[in-house]
Write a structure and sequence with these properties.
25 strands; alpha/beta; single chain; six-stranded antiparallel β-sheet; binds alpha-D-glucopyranose; globular
């Protein structure tokens, strides 16, 4: 709709286009607002309507023009050109200026999309890696200044690179100005949070609320002596949950969101958005009101800054994730992008079991995403790896869900001698057996152990696994996101164990510093690191040259009858389709040539493989796939 408006009204100026966008979204904005806050909120709604033009006025002209340009292009985020990397600015190259100096590194690899972990002001001590926010728009000194960010975004725009920053929408730190005012007894700001003088409401909530960080932050409420009240703190005790039943909170956060976008941010990562609405008697995740709030943010942002899109960080059950693209009247009107957390968990499951059965079952079970939406595909991020698997499907395979989850934790967290993985347990609950996994991609995939034991076969296998998993996310459909360092097989970083404020949180093991010394040696040695880097760089280049990898919802899963193989196709009528084939087993597997022939990938008993750029013959009518081999066949 907005694309149409912007193209039809070429002669209209930017303000007219804003008015048109507002008129187009007004009914939905109004319906959402009143559905969340109730019918008697005319004054508040009028205030929102007055605010939108003011927010638009503050948007720099060059971004307003970029917005119109992007509307013209359409779904730019679905392009095969999108290739992401995630990093902590200080762990990468000191600060924002240091990062800017390294833009060439990304260009060389083919990366054009950066997710910088929080760079805003945060408490000095524990701050959850910056996810405790003191001020949504002030840059923490150690990273630099607003000017540095402006310089970075300007250069990124010139290089056609995209920036993603976090919007920690669910909670502020206990040092945010609102929290400070609340602590000082200001009831207006106490209403920005869920605060209670008595324990009865918190106790009632606790009956159903799960614990996010049971080891370090048990319970969901924290007593604040200064205000003699309990405040809801679902994550850490120093992260206060914002009270979105108060429309003032929405208004204030909308202003923060727009300001972030006005700093030149292209994709806003909506952090922990599943938690935005709390309701007693429920687990207070994925509630319909949370979806309505997200849609309201989105509809308003689309009016003010339509070139900025939203990413849903909803690490929830597979069937719930898809709802963050919007359902029913808000279908396609929540987030444009969501983390494909299910695929991530399933890939780790397939590595440990050497089988793809659960992967197939789950992919089939998840409803199709809307056409305009896309995934962030990743094998791991800065957080832990949660076992977001569907128990019902585990059971259908004849496995016991509890036992299976225990096996996965044992496999990855060094509780099985024979396992190549060197991960750590995160938030393990001995009572329930629940737990999550931390570790760098390379360490979880066996490189750390193999290098220690100097076992060449295991080193090779680990390198192959690292390449195979990345090859899957590069080809799957969506934006591939690599964690900085994984492209050179960086191992776990155990230094966090000596740091106060970090040692309780094993996620720091998988947030290593970028190893520029290793990178310097890459040209000289044929090391595992070099093999990983060179192959990933090549895969990225192939992806970018082949528009079939753009996400046009052109993904088809093919069954092979072999439980170790994953086979999917990216189809296109006009472009050359690609068949992605991988073997999760440590023995070679074969694929019947008749399947390849049926799918149209055999010509005179030969097939073309894009990664090796070779044309090969079948062997006695079969295609042999080596352990952890990745093949991209071209039609
Ligand atoms: C998200 C972040 C995670 C953080 C949490 C609380 O899940 O990815 O790092 O701890 O939100 O803000």
């Amino acid at each position: 709709m907005h694309k149409l408006i912007s193209s039809r009204k070429k002669k209209k100026d930017l303000n007219d286009l804003f008015e048109l966008r507002l008129a187009t979204n007004l009914t939905l904005i109004k319906n959402l607002f009143f559905s969340i806050y109730g019918k008697n909120r005319n004054t508040e709604f009028a205030a929102l309507l007055q605010k939108l033009p003011k927010l638009f006025d503050k948007r720099p002209e060059y971004l307003k023009k970029q917005d119109i340009h992007r509307l013209g292009i359409g779904n730019w985020y679905q392009s095969e050109q999108m290739m992401g990397m995630q990093l902590y600015v200080d762990h990468f190259n000191k600060d924002l200026k240091g990062l800017q100096d390294k833009l060439g590194y990304f260009e060389d690899l083919g990366i054009n999309f950066l997710h910088l972990m929080p760079i805003t002001e945060r408490p000095k001590g524990e701050n959850d890696g910056g996810y405790a926010v003191n001020n949504y728009t002030a840059i923490a000194k150690k990273y630099g200044s607003k000017k540095d960010l402006a310089s970075l975004t300007q250069q990124m725009r010139a290089k056609k690179m995209y920036l993603m920053l976090d919007f920690v929408v669910n909670h502020t730190s206990d040092e945010h100005a609102w929290a400070k005012k609340a602590k000082s007894g200001n009831t207006r700001y106490q209403d920005y949070y869920y605060t209670y003088a008595e324990r009865d409401v918190p106790d009632a909530f606790e009956k159903n609320l799960p614990e996010v960080f049971p080891e370090t932050s048990p319970g969901n409420f924290t007593y604040i002596p200064e205000m003699e009240k309990w405040v809801m703190t679902v994550f850490n005790t120093y992260q206060w949950d914002l009270n979105y039943t108060n429309p003032e909170v929405f208004m204030a956060m909308l202003a923060n969101l727009v300001e972030l976008s006005n700093m030149g941010v292209d994709v806003v990562r909506f952090d922990a958005l599943a938690f935005l609405w709390k309701k007693m008697g429920t687990v207070s995740q994925n509630l319909p009101e949370a979806h309505a709030i997200i849609a309201l943010f989105r509809m308003c942002l689309q009016v003010v800054a339509p070139g900025t899109i939203l990413l849903a960080e909803a690490i929830v059950a597979p069937k719930e994730i898809i709802n963050y693209f919007g359902t029913g009247p808000t279908k396609g009107n929540e987030c444009e992008v969501a983390y494909n957390a299910s695929l991530m968990a399933l890939l780790w499951n397939s590595i440990a079991t050497k089988k793809t059965a659960l992967l197939y079952k789950s992919l089939i079970d998840i409803p199709n995403k809307p056409h305009d939406a896309t995934w962030i595909n990743y094998i791991r991020c800065h957080d832990d790896i949660g076992l977001g698997l569907d128990d019902r499907l585990i059971q259908e395979l004849g496995w016991n869900p509890k036992g299976h989850r225990k096996f996965l934790l044992d496999y990855y967290c060094q509780r099985l001698d024979w396992s190549p993985a060197k991960g750590m347990l995160f938030m393990h609950n001995p009572k329930t057996g629940d737990g999550r996994i931390t570790g760098s991609a390379a360490s979880l995939l066996g490189l750390e152990k193999a290098l220690l034991t100097k076992n060449k076969t295991e080193i090779d296998q680990s390198v192959a696994k690292i390449i195979m998993l990345h090859g899957i996310i590069l080809a799957f459909g969506g934006i591939p996101l690599i964690y900085a360092g994984d492209e050179i097989g960086t191992l776990n970083d155990y230094s966090f164990l000596n740091e106060d404020g970090k040692k309780e949180d094993s996620r720091w093991v998988n947030r290593p510093k970028q190893d520029w010394d290793v990178i310097k040696t890459l040209k000289k040695k044929k090391s595992p690191q070099q093999r990983i880097r060179d192959t990933l760089k090549m895969l990225i280049a192939i992806r970018k040259k082949n528009p079939v990898f753009a996400d046009h919802s052109n993904f088809t899963l093919h069954h092979t009858g072999n439980q170790h193989i994953l086979l999917f196709e990216r189809t296109s009528k006009s472009k050359k389709s690609v068949l992605v084939l991988c073997n999760f087993d440590d023995n070679p597997q074969v694929l019947d040539g008749s399947l390849l022939s049926k799918l149209g990938y055999l010509k005179n008993q030969e097939f073309h493989e894009m990664i090796t750029a070779t044309t090969n013959k079948l062997n006695s009518g079969f295609l042999e796939v080596k352990p952890y081999q990745l093949l991209w066949l071209q039609k």
